[in-house]
Amino acid sequence: MNFKSIVDQFQAKGQVKKIASFGGGHINRTYRVYNEDPQCPDYLLQQINHEVFTDVPSMMDNIQRVVAHLTGKDDNYKMLALIPLVEGGIYFRNPKGEYWRMFTFINSLTSFEVAKNTEQIYEGAKAFGNFLHHLSDFPTDSLHLTIPDFHNVISRLNIFRKAVEQDSFKRAAKAAFEIQYAWKLAEEMSAIQKAGKNGKIPLRVTHNDTKFNNVLLHCNGGGGVVIDLDTVMPGYVHFDFGDGIRTTASVAREDEPDLSKIQVDIKRTAAFINGYLEGAGDILTPIEIQYLPLSGALMAYIMGIRFLTDYLSGDVYYKISFEEQNFQRAKAQLDLAKKLLERKADIEKLL
Ligand code: ADP
Ligand code: GN1
Ligand code: MG
How far is the C-alpha of 56 from the C-alpha of 48, rounded, in Å? Predict the structure, then answer.
């Protein structure tokens, strides 16, 4: 089966001009379908990673209901548009067992790996905050758990411990410093999970992957369209707020090899906080707000131990583009967690 015959399964308009790989996600395979017909849109075709998302029908059910809830809720809030199949439904499974879906390609907007300026950060954060706000009346319990315990740091530490013990690729010795550092922070990093478990933090509908490249924007901000809805499920606001801080507070890339370039920029951090709180409105409780300053460090820490786990396990989960990229990502994220913790008091003052 070639790409053209996959595209033909969907109610796409116009004629395919070409299909090319697109975007920098770590999980799915994404393609842009260029349209020959200038009157018709381009499309974004995705092959869903069904090793990561083992229950694709449930995941697509979450996405369809969340998109329907958000579409038209607020004229200023734009949402992704799913393209249905000719035969009905919103995803296609080919004879090889691959799952495919399609969205309208939004070519007036772009995703940025590293935000260019504070205006962009503010607008992206506002879109993520709005997402939480507009879903606050959605029945949280009705969502499927696409990846159970996705941001449960205690479960992540258990998986990490096993990977270190097994050391199947004999990489633990090389990562001894990072492994030891991860354990040093474990207790402090468990605070949000414990407060949630004790009923102090409400479960909401969260996006759970609010890294900055998952919001489409104009160059100078504006236009915020939240994408990558695969992990929408019940969670704590800290997962979304924290992942936004993780990916905007520093200008360094997620896998920056020079740790001296990883620095918390307070103006960028303030832009994220102001945008997110503006978007979320007045729904957050005092205890949720109290834990927000810790959440950026928590999300950097979770990513650090996940990248390290994957490195120790032989790079089976995240796409890598060079040898040891997961180790480099882990070092950068653990360093970022440390620096965000050091600036926690400064971040508190911004709230
Ligand atoms: P992944 O789960 O692999 O991160 P995403 O859904 O985030 O996949 O898509 C990968 C990239 O494709 C995004 O970072 C973004 O650049 C681009 N993208 C996704 N959806 C659209 C869209 N509807 N219009 C334009 N670009 C998009
Ligand atoms: C993955 O799909 P993508 O690239 O937006 C991962 C996130 C991590 C992120 C780190 C399903 O997100 O949890 O935060 O990489 N998604 C999944 O960059 O594991
Ligand atoms: Mg993505």
Answer: 8
Lowest mean pLDDT across 105-114, 257-266, 335-344: 105-114
Full-model pTM: 0.97
- Distance CA(147)–CA(149), nearest Å, equals 6
Nearest CA among 69, 203, 210, 198 for reference residue 127:
210
Per-residue pLDDT for 1 more than 60?
no
Q: What is the pLDDT of residues 299-330, one digit of tens each?
A: 999 999 999 999 999 999 999 999 999 999 99
Residues with CB under 6 A from ligand 1: 22-25, 27-28, 30, 44, 80, 103, 105-106, 111, 213-214, 216, 227-228, 230
Which residue is closest in CA terms to ligand 2's atom 13?
A: 209
- Report phi then psi at 128, rounded to 5: -65, -40
What span, in angstroms and rounded, lies between the C-alpha atoms of 144 and 54? 12
Domains of the chain: 3-107 (3.30.200.20), 118-350 (3.90.1200.10)
Sorted by sequence, the CB contacts under 8 Å of residue 12 that are 6+ apart come out as 33, 40, 43, 83, 102
Residue 82 and residue 66 in contact, taking contact as beta carbons nearer than 8 Å: no
- Residue 270: pLDDT over 60: yes
Kindly give, in sequence order, each residue whose CB lies less than 8 Å from that of residue 282, ignoring residues fewer than 6 positions away: none
